[in-house]
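Record type: ASSEMBLY
Status: queued
Input:
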Amino acid sequence: MGEEYSIGLVFVWPPALLLLVVEIQTQIDKQFSLLAVDDWTRNPPEVARGNYRLHLKTHWVGQQVVEVHPFAKDLTFALACRLLLGIDDEEAIAQLQKPFGHFSAGLLSLPIDLPGTNFRRAIKAAKELRKEFEVMIKRWKRDRSPSQSQGILSQHLLELNEEGQESDMATRILALISASYDNVSTAMTFVVKYLAEMPNVYDAVLREQSEIAKAKEVDEPLNWDDIQKMRYSWNVASEVLRLHPPANGAFREVITNFTYAGFLIPKGWKLHWNAFATHKSPEYFPDAGKFDPSRFEGNGLVPYSYVPFGGGAHMCPGKEYARIAILVLMHNVVTKFKLQKVFPDEKVIGLPVLRPAKGLPIHLYPHQQL
Ligand code: HEM
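Status: finished
Output:
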């Protein structure tokens, strides 16, 4: 199982993930997800028009305090449902999100299938979700129509025109949404955390985003050119991803002996490459603990020193999706609100995914009140 690398490594999945997602041997089909994600990145205005405004309006406008992490999870899930699956109905999204939360919590758990364990709950949730997705896929096939409201995956699955493969397709959908869910929501949460903690960074992001907003009509959605102008904002997000990589790395299996830093790494070993440690290397990132978005100006990064999205043959195909999702959130948040953390010393906890211990509650101050 897995794809080979020229230096003698092969990609492997952690055990729980393997059992839950890849049990029918189909790995996540990279071409499939690449096509889907490319389509989406060509059409970012949909995002600004739909979920972001709606979410900020219903969850932030009029509120004094919001919990950013749960909000980011809801937003990420709703985005995936809307953009990938074409589901708009909030109730339908909420119904899927509950089992999805169990599934996601079990992905990086110990694969112990006993009552009360995260793993057992995740198996149950995965079955439930697959069943839901299978029904959905059958409906897409039955109603086959080039409706604008359909999601990217639904359209793509129809284009593939695979007969009778509903269970495979359902697994692909599950795998793709889960690949985005925790990572994107964690990245969004830490971006907002730094914006709330660093007034000078916030001000510079606000300047950039205000210029973009000023050049548009009221309520005119963001477009691809606007996203390209968000250079400083993306440097900020990149620095956040360096200090808090949401995916801490991945596994590889050694398929031929090789030497690394003077050590012989024998065939058959399993390796974990670690983004967190790599990003803290003083060799590649001077004063590595310092938050400094200017590191990303110019072309100064050494290849494979900055790996929040991995690298090589299995590099994350959702990178552009994530970039746009994060930038559009930054735009909408800073142009509307000033932010202040409720708990200035809120701890960050790990295992399995880094997150602020109390969900990052923040005070919101709408700009007109400043
Ligand atoms: C901030 C957000 C994200 C981060 C930090 C992230 C990070 C990663 C990392 C580290 C890997 C492993 C790469 C490797 O082994 O070299 C990966 C793989 C993957 N990601 Fe992401 N990801 C993010 C968002 C997304 C999104 C939005 C999607 C889909 C819509 C996605 C889909 C995938 C898929 C399908 C793979 C497996 C690729 C393969 O095995 O060939 N990711 N991601």
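Annotation: Residues 28, 30, 33, 37, 176, 179-180, 183-184, 187, 246-247, 250, 308-312, 314-318, 321-322 surround protoporphyrin IX containing FE (CB under 6 Å).
Annotation: The chain has one domain: 9-369.
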